[in-house]
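User:
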Amino acid sequence: MEGVCKEHSLDSSNVVVIGASKTQNMDSIDQAYKAGVTNFGENYLQEAEKKIKECDLDICWHFIGSIQKRKCKKIAALFDWVHTLERIEVAEKLNAGREGNINKLNVCIQVNIDHEESKSGIALEEVNSFIEALKEMKNLRIRGLMAIPDPSLNPENSILSFRKLKDKFEELKALNEDVDSLSMGMSGDYREAIMEGSSMIRIGTSIFGKRI
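Assistant: Predicted structure:
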């Protein structure tokens, strides 16, 4: 990550590395933490709940998996961030689950940037109206957008997808004071994502190695 930023004259301090710690145990998380990773992303509530409750490290926890409505209350209570918000009914439940917490839940809206039928997320054209609906929810803080480009695309087309998301992000940033985060890029494409303005990259393999 540092090399990419240096090569393109970007400030690496503006990019948050999220260790995608699905299936990793606390020993692996501890090692990554000691190496400087302080943000970790989990996909599954049951697995994450055990880790979070056992953890005594100063970690910022991000939920980066699909959200089931019946699990919203716990997700809202346990996590600092949710990156995969795409339905109003889920937002309502997260908002209710955060009631009484001193801090708002940071949320990113998941965009289906390449219109994949098998992938979650709203269309880019729906983002503005979605945000307007979210503004009614006082326990949520709208921080930005998240997307995962179609993995079958070549690097050039992935860059175009990242660029479309960045353009929408800049539009929203000008209109919404809390919008400051663009969550895009994983182990295979984080270089292209950073070049196109990502402020959060979700890295699993490059931190923890290949899952067995």
